[in-house]
Amino acid sequence: MPDSLTFTNLLDDAALLSLEHQLHLEEVLADHSWNADLQEQRFEFTGSRTITCTRFHLLGSAAPGPRSWLWAWANPSGFPDSLVAASATLRDFGQRHGIAELGSPEVPFDALPGSPAEPHLAAGLLTEAAKAVTGHWTSYNGDAGGGTRVAFLVEHPEFRLPPPEPTRVMRVIQQAIAGLSLRDHRRALHSYAVKRQLGAEFGPDHATLSLTGPGLEAAVDFDASGRVAGIKATLSSPHGT
To answer: What is the pTM of this model?
Structure first.
């Protein structure tokens, strides 16, 4: 990452890869319930089968009363150090790079982009930024009662993405452009391509971005405002079948 970073940079860096992981998580879990024992450090999903996470990380909680997010490292409940270590890493990163949203113990909703009114939306923004810093890409945002939402990063072999497949890559890109609040389209798409180990090369003046990978050739055009104006893509089976 460059030395000069902002919170919104991190949101764009995370946006598409996070979306793909969350889509994959939905497919793996389908209808489910969740249960976490924070002191025993056990997190599991139950439904048609039980998936016990190999690791999980408590990031923090968003509460409707104070309308603020509280990072896990600053929570007075005294959670195990290993459970809040990721949030402490984010604190150190935020303080090092001057990103108050990560470095402060408590973050008012109004200090976040768009001033989200609902706890789950505020938790989602902090979680997205956390993914870009930690490299843990699968998250879960659960109801903690009283309107409070608690956010985790969760790990399990089944949550890992399969190799990039052309149709799915294009679905993620199109869904992100249509449904996510991307601040910098160029940054978001380039970040996704690099993290997905796709070829990514800007044309003159960054007016176009060429994406290549097994079975994929795509040209993304940007308008004068830097937003995606069009995509031309050629897809084929990555295995030539």
So the answer is: 0.94
